[in-house]
Amino acid sequence: MSAPAPVAQLAALADDTRWAILGLLGASPRSASDLARELPVSRQAIAKHLAVLEQAGLVAAERDGRAVRYRALGASLSALADRLDAIGRGWDARLARIAAIAEADPRS
Amino acid sequence: MSAPAPVAQLAALADDTRWAILGLLGASPRSASDLARELPVSRQAIAKHLAVLEQAGLVAAERDGRAVRYRALGASLSALADRLDAIGRGWDARLARIAAIAEADPRS
DNA sequence: TCGATCCGCAACCCTAGGGTTGCAGGAGGT
DNA sequence: ACCTCCTGCAACCCTAGGGTTGCGGATCGA
Protein backbone atom coordinates (compact mmCIF):
# COMPACT_ATOMS: atom_id res chain seq x y z
CA MET A 1 0.00 0.00 0.00
CA SER A 2 2.52 2.56 1.11
CA ALA A 3 4.91 3.47 -1.72
CA PRO A 4 8.24 1.61 -1.70
CA ALA A 5 10.72 3.16 0.71
CA PRO A 6 12.49 6.09 -0.95
CA VAL A 7 15.94 4.59 -0.59
CA ALA A 8 17.38 6.58 -3.50
CA GLN A 9 16.62 9.94 -1.89
CA LEU A 10 17.85 8.74 1.48
CA ALA A 11 21.08 7.48 -0.04
CA ALA A 12 21.55 10.87 -1.66
CA LEU A 13 21.19 12.45 1.77
CA ALA A 14 23.56 10.02 3.49
CA ASP A 15 26.73 11.99 2.80
CA ASP A 16 28.34 14.91 4.60
CA THR A 17 29.68 16.59 1.50
CA ARG A 18 26.24 16.57 -0.07
CA TRP A 19 24.77 18.16 3.04
CA ALA A 20 27.42 20.84 2.83
CA ILE A 21 26.39 21.45 -0.76
CA LEU A 22 22.71 21.48 0.12
CA GLY A 23 23.37 23.90 2.95
CA LEU A 24 25.00 26.36 0.58
CA LEU A 25 22.38 25.90 -2.15
CA GLY A 26 19.68 26.31 0.46
CA ALA A 27 21.15 29.67 1.38
CA SER A 28 21.45 30.90 -2.19
CA PRO A 29 21.72 29.30 -5.64
CA ARG A 30 25.15 28.99 -7.22
CA SER A 31 27.21 27.06 -9.73
CA ALA A 32 29.39 23.99 -9.33
CA SER A 33 32.54 26.10 -9.67
CA ASP A 34 31.29 28.44 -6.97
CA LEU A 35 30.73 25.48 -4.66
CA ALA A 36 34.19 24.11 -5.47
CA ARG A 37 35.70 27.36 -4.21
CA GLU A 38 33.87 27.14 -0.91
CA LEU A 39 34.31 23.45 -0.21
CA PRO A 40 37.46 21.36 0.26
CA VAL A 41 36.82 19.07 -2.72
CA SER A 42 37.41 19.30 -6.44
CA ARG A 43 34.83 20.67 -8.86
CA GLN A 44 34.42 17.27 -10.50
CA ALA A 45 33.58 15.67 -7.19
CA ILE A 46 30.96 18.33 -6.66
CA ALA A 47 29.62 17.76 -10.15
CA LYS A 48 29.09 14.11 -9.30
CA HIS A 49 27.29 15.02 -6.09
CA LEU A 50 25.09 17.49 -7.91
CA ALA A 51 24.18 14.79 -10.43
CA VAL A 52 23.15 12.48 -7.60
CA LEU A 53 21.15 15.20 -5.89
CA GLU A 54 19.45 16.20 -9.12
CA GLN A 55 18.58 12.58 -9.86
CA ALA A 56 17.05 12.37 -6.40
CA GLY A 57 15.01 15.47 -7.09
CA LEU A 58 16.56 17.38 -4.23
CA VAL A 59 18.18 20.00 -6.42
CA ALA A 60 17.31 21.73 -9.70
CA ALA A 61 19.70 22.92 -12.40
CA GLU A 62 19.16 26.08 -14.41
CA ARG A 63 21.48 26.95 -17.26
CA ASP A 64 22.52 30.61 -17.36
CA GLY A 65 24.93 31.25 -20.21
CA ARG A 66 27.96 29.06 -19.75
CA ALA A 67 27.24 28.66 -16.06
CA VAL A 68 24.77 26.21 -14.54
CA ARG A 69 23.13 27.48 -11.42
CA TYR A 70 21.72 24.98 -8.91
CA ARG A 71 19.16 25.55 -6.19
CA ALA A 72 17.93 23.33 -3.35
CA LEU A 73 14.36 22.03 -3.53
CA GLY A 74 13.03 22.29 -0.01
CA ALA A 75 9.61 21.04 -1.03
CA SER A 76 11.12 17.70 -2.09
CA LEU A 77 12.78 17.30 1.27
CA SER A 78 9.55 18.12 3.05
CA ALA A 79 7.68 15.61 0.88
CA LEU A 80 10.19 12.95 1.83
CA ALA A 81 9.76 13.94 5.46
CA ASP A 82 6.02 13.43 5.17
CA ARG A 83 6.48 9.93 3.84
CA LEU A 84 8.89 9.02 6.63
CA ASP A 85 6.57 10.42 9.25
CA ALA A 86 3.67 8.38 7.88
CA ILE A 87 5.76 5.21 7.97
CA GLY A 88 6.92 5.89 11.51
CA ARG A 89 3.38 6.47 12.71
CA GLY A 90 2.33 3.27 10.97
CA TRP A 91 4.87 1.24 12.92
CA ASP A 92 3.93 2.67 16.27
CA ALA A 93 0.22 2.23 15.59
CA ARG A 94 0.63 -1.44 14.69
CA LEU A 95 2.98 -2.22 17.54
CA ALA A 96 0.72 -0.43 20.02
CA ARG A 97 -2.18 -2.54 18.82
CA ILE A 98 -0.17 -5.71 19.33
CA ALA A 99 0.82 -4.57 22.82
CA ALA A 100 -2.83 -3.94 23.65
CA ILE A 101 -3.81 -7.43 22.52
CA ALA A 102 -1.00 -8.98 24.55
CA GLU A 103 -2.27 -7.09 27.57
CA ALA A 104 -5.84 -8.27 27.13
CA ASP A 105 -4.79 -11.89 26.54
CA PRO A 106 -1.83 -12.45 28.87
CA ARG A 107 -0.62 -15.94 28.00
CA SER A 108 3.09 -15.32 27.69
CA MET B 1 21.33 27.17 14.74
CA SER B 2 19.74 24.11 13.21
CA ALA B 3 21.26 20.91 14.59
CA PRO B 4 23.88 19.23 12.39
CA ALA B 5 22.32 17.16 9.62
CA PRO B 6 21.47 13.69 10.93
CA VAL B 7 23.65 11.88 8.44
CA ALA B 8 24.06 8.82 10.65
CA GLN B 9 20.34 8.08 10.76
CA LEU B 10 19.98 8.77 7.05
CA ALA B 11 22.87 6.45 6.25
CA ALA B 12 21.19 3.78 8.33
CA LEU B 13 18.06 4.22 6.22
CA ALA B 14 19.91 4.18 2.90
CA ASP B 15 19.81 0.42 2.43
CA ASP B 16 17.14 -1.88 1.03
CA THR B 17 17.86 -4.77 3.35
CA ARG B 18 17.50 -2.53 6.37
CA TRP B 19 14.15 -1.28 5.08
CA ALA B 20 13.06 -4.88 4.69
CA ILE B 21 14.07 -5.48 8.30
CA LEU B 22 12.32 -2.33 9.49
CA GLY B 23 9.19 -3.30 7.61
CA LEU B 24 9.03 -6.62 9.42
CA LEU B 25 9.89 -5.12 12.81
CA GLY B 26 7.30 -2.44 12.23
CA ALA B 27 4.69 -5.13 11.74
CA SER B 28 5.66 -7.10 14.83
CA PRO B 29 8.77 -7.48 16.98
CA ARG B 30 11.01 -10.49 16.39
CA SER B 31 14.52 -11.84 16.80
CA ALA B 32 17.48 -11.78 14.43
CA SER B 33 17.06 -15.48 13.71
CA ASP B 34 13.40 -14.93 12.89
CA LEU B 35 14.38 -12.23 10.44
CA ALA B 36 17.04 -14.45 8.89
CA ARG B 37 14.36 -17.01 8.09
CA GLU B 38 12.21 -14.45 6.29
CA LEU B 39 14.93 -12.62 4.41
CA PRO B 40 17.41 -13.82 1.79
CA VAL B 41 20.51 -12.98 3.81
CA SER B 42 22.47 -14.68 6.56
CA ARG B 43 21.74 -14.12 10.23
CA GLN B 44 25.12 -12.45 10.77
CA ALA B 45 24.39 -9.92 8.06
CA ILE B 46 21.11 -9.15 9.79
CA ALA B 47 22.88 -8.83 13.11
CA LYS B 48 25.15 -6.18 11.60
CA HIS B 49 22.17 -4.32 10.22
CA LEU B 50 20.40 -4.46 13.55
CA ALA B 51 23.50 -3.03 15.23
CA VAL B 52 23.50 -0.13 12.78
CA LEU B 53 19.80 0.49 13.25
CA GLU B 54 20.08 0.31 17.02
CA GLN B 55 23.00 2.74 16.97
CA ALA B 56 20.88 5.09 14.90
CA GLY B 57 18.08 4.82 17.44
CA LEU B 58 15.65 3.41 14.90
CA VAL B 59 15.27 0.07 16.63
CA ALA B 60 15.29 -1.14 20.22
CA ALA B 61 16.54 -4.47 21.55
CA GLU B 62 14.88 -6.37 24.38
CA ARG B 63 16.41 -9.53 25.75
CA ASP B 64 13.92 -12.35 26.37
CA GLY B 65 15.67 -15.43 27.67
CA ARG B 66 18.21 -16.53 25.10
CA ALA B 67 16.49 -14.60 22.34
CA VAL B 68 16.81 -10.88 21.67
CA ARG B 69 13.65 -9.34 20.35
CA TYR B 70 13.86 -6.13 18.30
CA ARG B 71 11.14 -3.61 17.61
CA ALA B 72 10.99 -0.59 15.29
CA LEU B 73 10.87 2.86 16.87
CA GLY B 74 8.42 4.81 14.77
CA ALA B 75 8.75 7.87 16.97
CA SER B 76 12.42 8.18 16.04
CA LEU B 77 11.60 8.08 12.38
CA SER B 78 8.93 10.71 12.84
CA ALA B 79 11.37 12.88 14.77
CA LEU B 80 13.85 12.64 11.93
CA ALA B 81 11.05 13.53 9.52
CA ASP B 82 10.31 16.65 11.53
CA ARG B 83 13.92 17.78 11.31
CA LEU B 84 14.04 17.21 7.56
CA ASP B 85 10.80 19.07 7.05
CA ALA B 86 12.12 22.03 9.01
CA ILE B 87 15.28 22.13 6.94
CA GLY B 88 13.34 21.91 3.69
CA ARG B 89 11.04 24.74 4.72
CA GLY B 90 14.08 26.78 5.70
CA TRP B 91 15.57 26.45 2.23
CA ASP B 92 12.39 27.43 0.45
CA ALA B 93 11.82 30.38 2.75
CA ARG B 94 15.31 31.77 2.19
CA LEU B 95 15.27 31.20 -1.56
CA ALA B 96 11.84 32.75 -1.87
CA ARG B 97 13.10 35.81 -0.05
CA ILE B 98 16.03 36.10 -2.44
CA ALA B 99 13.70 35.75 -5.41
CA ALA B 100 11.52 38.53 -4.03
CA ILE B 101 14.50 40.84 -3.66
CA ALA B 102 15.68 40.06 -7.20
CA GLU B 103 12.21 40.95 -8.43
CA ALA B 104 12.12 44.27 -6.60
CA ASP B 105 15.64 45.19 -7.73
CA PRO B 106 15.96 43.86 -11.29
CA ARG B 107 19.56 44.55 -12.26
CA SER B 108 20.59 41.21 -13.66
C1' DT C 1 41.02 36.94 -32.00
C1' DC C 2 42.74 35.48 -27.73
C1' DG C 3 42.75 34.35 -23.06
C1' DA C 4 40.13 33.09 -19.06
C1' DT C 5 36.52 30.37 -17.27
C1' DC C 6 33.14 27.05 -16.97
C1' DC C 7 31.37 22.68 -18.05
C1' DG C 8 31.42 17.47 -19.35
C1' DC C 9 33.70 12.96 -20.03
C1' DA C 10 36.92 9.30 -18.83
C1' DA C 11 40.30 6.69 -16.41
C1' DC C 12 41.98 5.63 -12.16
C1' DC C 13 42.82 4.97 -6.82
C1' DC C 14 41.24 3.63 -2.45
C1' DT C 15 38.35 2.98 1.44
C1' DA C 16 33.63 1.89 3.52
C1' DG C 17 30.65 -1.39 4.18
C1' DG C 18 27.29 -5.27 2.80
C1' DG C 19 27.71 -10.16 2.55
C1' DT C 20 29.70 -14.71 3.66
C1' DT C 21 31.68 -18.66 6.36
C1' DG C 22 33.37 -20.61 10.63
C1' DC C 23 33.52 -21.16 15.41
C1' DA C 24 32.79 -20.57 20.50
C1' DG C 25 29.75 -19.38 24.33
C1' DG C 26 25.15 -19.64 26.84
C1' DA C 27 20.40 -20.37 27.88
C1' DG C 28 16.29 -23.72 27.37
C1' DG C 29 13.83 -27.97 27.03
C1' DT C 30 13.46 -32.89 28.13
C1' DA D 1 23.35 -34.53 31.37
C1' DC D 2 22.46 -33.83 26.62
C1' DC D 3 20.99 -31.83 22.56
C1' DT D 4 19.23 -27.85 20.40
C1' DC D 5 18.80 -23.23 19.24
C1' DC D 6 20.16 -18.36 19.47
C1' DT D 7 23.62 -15.07 19.99
C1' DG D 8 28.36 -12.85 19.52
C1' DC D 9 33.08 -12.46 17.62
C1' DA D 10 36.47 -12.62 13.83
C1' DA D 11 38.47 -13.10 9.42
C1' DC D 12 37.76 -12.60 4.80
C1' DC D 13 35.86 -11.31 -0.13
C1' DC D 14 34.15 -8.03 -3.26
C1' DT D 15 31.65 -4.27 -5.14
C1' DA D 16 29.81 0.65 -4.75
C1' DG D 17 31.03 4.99 -4.73
C1' DG D 18 33.59 9.30 -3.05
C1' DG D 19 37.71 11.57 -4.54
C1' DT D 20 41.41 12.77 -7.78
C1' DT D 21 43.85 14.11 -12.12
C1' DG D 22 43.79 15.09 -17.01
C1' DC D 23 41.84 16.58 -21.22
C1' DG D 24 38.72 18.64 -24.71
C1' DG D 25 34.79 21.53 -25.95
C1' DA D 26 32.07 25.78 -25.40
C1' DT D 27 31.09 30.48 -24.04
C1' DC D 28 32.01 35.06 -22.34
C1' DG D 29 34.80 39.45 -22.07
C1' DA D 30 38.24 42.53 -23.74
TrEMBL record, chains A, B:
Regions that span the bilayer: none
Q: Which NCBIfam families match?
A: HTH_metalloreg (NF033788)
Name used for this protein in its record: Transcriptional regulator
Organism per entry: Agrococcus terreus
Q: Domain HTH arsR-type, which positions?
A: 1-92
Could you tell me which CDD domains the record lists for this protein?
Answer: HTH_ARSR
Spell out the InterPro entries in the cross-references: ArsR-like_HTH (IPR011991), HTH_ArsR_DNA-bd_dom (IPR001845), WH-like_DNA-bd_sf (IPR036388), WH_DNA-bd_sf (IPR036390)
A Pfam short name? HTH_20
Q: Which SMART domains match?
A: HTH_ARSR (SM00418)
